């Protein structure tokens, strides 16, 4: 992003040239695009992905349409930022196809944000073909925070033009050296990586076996929850990694991001369940809101994950908590601020 900003400032890019990103790109990445690229003169164009999503083909079609808008008026598309797995809602994106489209349509550079990918899906950065590919090892690769990698195509001349955002005495000696020695950074987290690899090798099939079993189990648990709530998965199994989105009963009335956060807090405080909740009141043009078995519009989704230490009983606690809310006639309107403080608490039977 810093390099993009300098490219606008130094005249390598024309003011108004475009940067393309998904609507569900992670918030800090979106803000980085605006902080660096848009401020320097870029036009930011978003790909409005539908959710729930029916197939990879839908994502490809929306991407093509957004790319056409980005190129309107003869604008150059300088950068496309594509998530390998979006965070919220969680969807496995067909990155290889989207990168190929960018190549065909003359997009200068493609950056794949794969923060959730390593440990969830099999990765071959050369096969993906992006100019930049980055992932975090602390999410699904059993490493501490602050462990990540950035892969840059070796034959790409831009590699010599990139610099670490923190300038050190290694400035000008290449990005690997600039990244290797930064002030008083604690490198102990990175030293754990070989031990993490050794740990995963103890499981049948190593990391690929772990991710395969996690995928199978998260789909199984997702289908169990969907059946109990009369809803559905937010994307087909082939568009899930080790995370899955499941629709919540529409009667809960999750109509805003604030509602979603309040329900998340309530599940944590009253039921001891920690689960992210997504509000989907925004639909793409022409897309009808999905409905549950009772005919209510589904505006809220939970994002469940599965790792080697998770057990079925944990998902059953979530299932039963939501079912209790439905039986009690709960609605998010009971949690919204008003002149009178309202709280929802689980009735505790007297002993």
UniProtKB/TrEMBL annotation:
<dbReference type="InterPro" id="IPR000192">
    <property type="entry name" value="Aminotrans_V_dom"/>
</dbReference>
<dbReference type="Pfam" id="PF00266">
    <property type="entry name" value="Aminotran_5"/>
</dbReference>
<feature type="domain" description="Aminotransferase class V">
    <location>
        <begin position="4"/>
        <end position="155"/>
    </location>
</feature>
<dbReference type="InterPro" id="IPR015424">
    <property type="entry name" value="PyrdxlP-dep_Trfase"/>
</dbReference>
<dbReference type="InterPro" id="IPR015421">
    <property type="entry name" value="PyrdxlP-dep_Trfase_major"/>
</dbReference>
<keyword id="KW-0663">Pyridoxal phosphate</keyword>
<protein>
    <recommendedName>
        <fullName>Aminotransferase class V domain-containing protein</fullName>
    </recommendedName>
</protein>
